[in-house]
Every structure is written in structure tokens, then in C-alpha cells.
Amino acid sequence: MTTKDSIRPAHRRLWSGLACDDPSSEIGVLGVPFDGATSFRKGASFAPSKIRELTPHVAPYTEDGTSLAGLRVRDYGDVFVDLDWERYFKTVEARAQQALNHPLALFLGGDHSVTIPLSRAFSSSVNGRFGMLHIDAHLDLADSFEGSRWSHACTQRRVLELPNIDSRHLVFVGIRSFMDDELEFLHEHPQIGLHTARDVYVRGIDDVAQSVVVQLQGVESVYVTLDIDALDPAFAPGTGTPEAGGLSTRDVLELLRTVFLDLPVRALDIVEVSPPLDHADITSVAALRVIYGAFGWVRSAD
Ligand SMILES: [Mn+2]
User: Fold this and answer.
1) From the CA of 242, how far away is ligand 1's center (Å)?
2) CATH homologous superfamily of 3-301
3) What is the DSSP string of 22-61?
4) Residue 80 Cα, ligand 1 centroid: separation in angstroms?
5) CA 97 to ligand 1 center in whole angstroms
6) How far is the CA of 23 from the centre of ligand 1 (A)?
7) Model confidence at 39, in pLDDT bands (50, 70, 90)?
8) How many CB atoms lie within 10 A of CB 86?
9) Mean pLDDT in the chain?
10) How much of the chain, in percent, has pLDDT values that exceed 90?
11) How far is the CA of 37 from the centre of ligand 1 (A)?
């Protein structure tokens, strides 16, 4: 058997066989395998290929048993890493537009800095105002970190510089780690939504999800960024900056189900999955459950 023959069957089943070149596909996928901004442990650059590699083994059904057959997923591949950080982010921003032409753009990071060019692309694809749901252990609200304004610790500061987002349309869920300047910024901007991991534990995820829906009501489009370290390390050990005391996979699925069904979500990124730091692909499998959930929610929101 040639190498080509041995890889063909798996390729045919990419995204569980839902992969398709149709420009009118419901989902547009783009991988951004960049982890140059990771401050602690690297490896997120391996996530897009690992996640895709697992998709032939995922059944094309939602967790409720609804078939995804007929859903079309157009995968634009990865934006190959360029050592010139500025040029790379410009390329990511340009390439993201293709995926944003689909009803839902799915972006696979990469570390959380990739949300900077992705949200720029999103911002210019939206006619009105947009909202941002940031699910993470960390706020990523530092103005600069380790000498860079494009660090994965600065993501939401850069997002708030975009012309068509108001800080009252930024909501955090899962937070349990802070830095001084982030707390200062939050103090100066009390309209920003903040639901810590403990809030989720005390109030329950449904109550938090309703608060998110209320806060983002009225925006034209919503961007959801999921840093996998929002999950407890028990559910997602393969990540560069793990923080104990986090959300369960179930919490994130329930939150996103409500948000996708009640708000105009047009982009989802999943960042900071680090396959080299993972065990038995637990973290990639968690990301895939969210992705296939999104596939089903996009469909039922039609
Ligand atoms: Mn984080």
C-alpha cells in the first residue's frame, strides 16, 4: 500500500465525513497554529492538526442524538506560521475573512494571542456592533505583557480598541486568576461582565448563561472565544497555563448551548489546547465535544 492510499480513507472522513468544498457550507474552519505568545508552556501550535486528526473518529451526531448528516464543513487549512509576528497577524486577519463568509466561522488556535487578528477580521465583517464572550481562567486584559502588546495576556485590551465593540458587550466567564493592572482596568470599566469560576459554582451555569444572554442582547453578532484553560485541569490538562478550580466540560456545553441558541454567534475560536502537554488527548476531545455541539446548535438555530 502506498502512503497516499493509506491516508486517503482518513482524509475522506475529515470532520466525520462532513468536510466539503462547497462555498455555501454552514461552517468555515481555519487553523492558526501559532504559540509564539505563550508565556509559560508551549505546544498550542500542534492543536489544529491534532483536533483534525481525531475528527474521523468522532461520530457525526450531536450529544442529543441528532444526526449532523448534510451539514457542510469547509476547512481552509492552517495559516502557516511566519516568524515575523506582525506580518503573520496580518495574514491571519486576511485569511480569516474566508471562514467568516460562512454562517459560523470556527477558528482553531494557537495561543490566545490569535484572537487579536481574528477579532479584527470579525470586527470588519460586522455591519453593526458586536459582542464578545470570553470563557477563560484568565482575563487577558493586560495592556502589555513581557514587553509585548500582542501577548496572549493582552487579547481583550486589543479587542476593546476595535471601533464597533463597547466594553459593556464584553463578558467573561470562568475567571479565577488576576493581575494588578487587569483589576485596575476592571475597576475603571464596571460595565464589563465578569462571572468567575466560583460564580458558576455558586449560582449554577444556567443562571450565568442567562446573564450573558441579557448582557449581549441587541448586538448584531457575537464572537465566542474559548480558552480551554477555563476548564478545570481535570477536564483539560493539556494547556500551557492551567489553573485549578475551573469549569467542567458540562458547564461549558450548557453555557454555549444557551448562548448559541439565544444570541447571533457568528464566530467561535478554541485556543490554548496543547497536545504535547496532554494525556490521552483528553483536552482535544473536550474541544471536539464543544465543536460538534456548535455544529448542532448552528443547525437548530436556523
Ligand atoms: Mn487562559
Assistant:
1) 8
2) Ureohydrolase domain (3.40.800.10)
3) -TT-SEEEEEE---TT-SS---GGGHHHHHHHHGGGS-SB
4) 23
5) 25
6) 33
7) low
8) 10
9) 93
10) 88
11) 12
User: Looking at the predicted structure, is the pLDDT value of residue 272 above 90?
Assistant: yes
293, 256 Cβ separation under 8 angstroms:
yes
Distance of CA 140 from the midpoint of ligand 1 (Å): 7
Which residue type is seen at 170? L
Length of the chain: 302
pLDDT > 80? residue 237: yes
C-alpha of residue 65 to centroid of ligand 1, in Å: 31
- At residue 2, does pLDDT exceed 60? no
d(CA 18, ligand 1 centre) in Å: 30
Phi (first) and psi of residue 285, to 5 degrees: -65, -40
Query: 227: CA distance to ligand 1 center in Å?
Result: 5
Residue 219 corresponds to which cell in the numbers above?
Answer: 448586538
How far, in Å, is the centroid of ligand 1 from the Cα of 139?
A: 7
Output phi, psi for 277, to 5 deg: -95, 5
